[in-house]
Amino acid sequence: MIRDVFSLSEGHQTEPRPKLSKLGFDTRHAQEIIYQFLLELVRKQPPAKVLLEFKQLFIDYDSSSGNVEVIKAISNLIFSNNENDFLHTLKRSCYILINNWDTSRNYSSIKALVDLFSDLKINKRTLSPALSRLRAWLANFIQSQDYYELKLFLAKYGYSDKAHWSSRYTSYLLVPQYTNLNNPVEQREAARALSKKLKDQFKFDLAMYTARSQSPIHHKDKTHKNPTGLGDDVLRFIKMIVVKRGTFSYVNLANIFLEQTRNIKYQDFKYSLQKYLVFSVGNKDFVEVLNRQLSEKSEVLYESYHEQRVNEALILRTSNKIIDYLTTEDQQEPSALFILLLSQGNHLTLVIVLLKIILICPNSRTHLETCIAKLIKYYADYSEDECQWVVNFFEVFNITFAIHADNVQYNLIKMSTTSPDDQSEAALETYRVFSQLRECVSVDTEEEGLPQVDEGRGQEAEGRR
Known about the structure:
The chain is mainly alpha-helical. It is built from 20 helices and 2 strands. It has helices spanning 27-44, 47-58, 68-80, 83-103, 107-118, 129-141, 145-152, 170-173, 175-179, 185-213, 234-242, 250-260, 266-278, 284-299, 312-326, 336-343, 347-360, 365-379, 388-403, 425-428; strands at residues 408-414, 431-437. Residues 445-465 are annotated as: Disordered.
């Protein structure tokens, strides 16, 4: 249900002041009329009828016997000459329909709704000032971030542009939509649900591909395709991630760090955090660059709290800042440190540092994914060949965080005797990697269960956070 925009919080005794346009129109009341009309329509009428009514209202600006009150509400929005109010209404109306059709799995209607805007005849001449203004606003809408975000929802239904490399990371591109409190509640809820579904689907596909690709029986089975952009190298890469076990696993290191820094002064915490992030990193150049760059920024970070005991709020704020330094400080362009580290080929090492941050502060996960989304959007104007170096980073990030998800477990079984610390190509070939779903993952498929690992033979799995 649409939330009542006039609802009062407890304790209030008076009605909120209506939002009036310059001409005296109550825009909120007009918007509510439109939302309620569409809700009733989408619940009771077939999609074809809903699409026709939507097109008549928002594109053709044409009245009918069934929409007299609604067309008057839209007229009020147009005459108010407030483009932002109108576009917000249009956007929320779209997500009302999308959410309802998604529930009923009517995906083709969602595509048809998005396609309505791609077929606009905006340049068609009209003598109506109201229709002329409406078309100008629609022209701005289809060039806006709002329409770009709307088209992201097609990824779930198989209609997105698969030719573009950024479509592989739609689950991250959706994150800024549900974290933006200015977006309609319907859009935020839809974006959050779709992002989770796409992540679950990727985890499922990766686990199934891993399980089947190493089986002699299923070796020629093409049913489960590689969901990554790394090609045949993905299995070796997964082994490199999973082989990090035992006392110095990333999860255990995070737990040790949190225990050792409990209630220490904030200034000491920052110093310990930097040591924790580079612990066990074998690349000396990476360690030197990261230590130098982070030391300069960390030294002045929240200086007024230096003598205070560290708490969860400080850990969260500090983690978010370190993530900014490592990805995008201005939330638009890649940070200098990000470019410097990747230019030296440190894709996996940087991802592991980001993983370490999330393991000590899970609440920073959404902020990290928002930063990743900003980076993907920044590089989306380049072809995959032009920015292959950063695409490799996104692939490594996507796979690493899928492997360390709570509901999928990866195990290695050693097929011959090798040194535990040997991660050479030959040594990794002596391992078999097995994947297993710990709990139900919500995906739109009916697949048989993944092979289960014999706990007596496999190595101990990393503890859950």
